[in-house]
Amino acid sequence: MLSTETKSIILSTVPVLEQHGEAITGRFYHILFSEHPELLNLFNQTNQRKGNQQTALANAVYAAAAHIDNLSVILPVVQRISEKHRALGVKPDQYAIVGETLLKAIQEVLGDAATPEIIDAWAQAYNVIADVFISVEHELYREAAEQPGGWRGFREFVVRDKVKESEAITSFYLEPADGKAIASYIPGQYLTLLVQVPGQPYLQRRHYSLSDAPGKPYYRISVKREAGVNGLPDGIVSTYLHDTVQVGDRLQASAPAGDFKLDTTNERPIVLLSGGVGMTPLVSMAQTLAEHGDTRPIVYIHAAIEGSVHAFDRRLRELAKQPNFSYHVVYERPQGEDERHPHFTKSGFVDRDLIERLAPADATFYFCGPTPYMRAIYKTLHAMGIQEDRIRFEFFGPTSQLVD
Ligand code: FAD
């Protein structure tokens, strides 16, 4: 338990640390990687270069500290982060390293302003916060290992099939190399790959949503080839998967994870909104509902730049033959025959008018797509008065990027 005095030091210094947030986390990562270079294999180095990880860490620590009086408020965020940590293989002892390094960084950046009392208060608060994460992650490791077909850490899979879904997206069908059962998952969850890409100095870990319905003897992930634009390097793992990995090759994956899950505990209509490759978890949901013979109204609205990069269209057209499933396609810049697509609804973007026209107001809304799409849909659903518990989303980048 933290004393009232410690809590008040934390609450009064959160704004100061926030103000120096970037400097502190920049320094933090510098110290961390020079003292513990093995951690370069754990942290996503592309996110490091883009500065995403710095923002994510700073936001998580300050948000936790600001709620030090009542950490239960941030439990949903802890759950989301811990799911990722478990999937990536974060270990309890790494929290101590991060804590020590963070305190060193705070001390260096704030200098004398960081008095021994302040450093001590932050050390105590960090331990309380770290314990919350460690205990949630302990439970997630246990669940992942103990469920039927489950496992701890990374397991070897063989690529059984590689199927092009569009000009940009290719599916990989993964079967366990040991031939044993695999853990089930809830549509919306993801698989995390651990890859040694030739020419890259560190191991790479990336999450990929499971794009098929569960209950198959394989996992299917569907990956967009992230080509570098404007002189930026190509995406490391996605281009490796597309260009190099072939049927018969082996990949390491941790057990399915994630808190973005299809909820079938009520009878509400379901609206699935996807942009680009963000369709992967939603296609899994649509497919699962169909396989279960679910008869509630299901509205699927997909946004793509144009038809050539629109994946899973054939599957969704099939699903749209069911009377309860409606499928709508929005192309930002339709080309050639795109406007003749039988489910083509409009060109441009998904907007409030369209959602209000197509979606039952009492539905649960699930969405996933690129950052501007996520921001627009989130704002729109709020403006429409949809309650928070009926808004569910997955984001393929750090959540901090969604916050204005
Ligand atoms: P990275 O090497 O990570 O690069 C990413 C992008 O950054 C590239 O476009 C690259 O050009 C650019 N970049 C590189 N260096 C810089 C720099 N210095 N400055 C600015 N930009 C730079 N992806 C899918 O395709 N399908 C999925 O189903 C899917 N599901 C996901 C589920 C979750 C929960 C999450 C978190 C992510 C998911 N992703 C999915 C995204 C996926 O994890 C990877 O982020 C994606 O494949 C890119 O990884 P990469 O290694 O190819 O690219």
Q: What does the main sheet amount to?
A: 6 strands, antiparallel
Look at the structure and give the mean pLDDT: 95
Strand arrangement in the largest pleated sheet: 4-3-6-1-2-5
Give the number of helices: 12
The residue ranges in which pLDDT falls below 50 over 5 or more consecutive positions are: none
Strand content: 15-25%
CATH class of the largest domain: Mainly Alpha
Q: What's the order of the H and E elements?
A: HHHHHHHEEEEEHEEHEHEEHEHE
- Output the CATH topology of the largest domain: Globin-like
Structural class: alpha/beta
Any idea how many domains?
Answer: 3
Q: What is the radius of gyration computed over CA atoms, rounded to a whole number of angstroms?
A: 22 Å
Bound molecules: flavin-adenine dinucleotide
- Rough outline: globular
- From the 3D coordinates, which CATH architecture of the largest domain would you assign? Orthogonal Bundle
**Secondary structure: number of strands:** 12
The separation of the N and C termini measures 33 Å
> CATH superfamily name of the largest domain?
Globins
Give the % helix: 40-55%
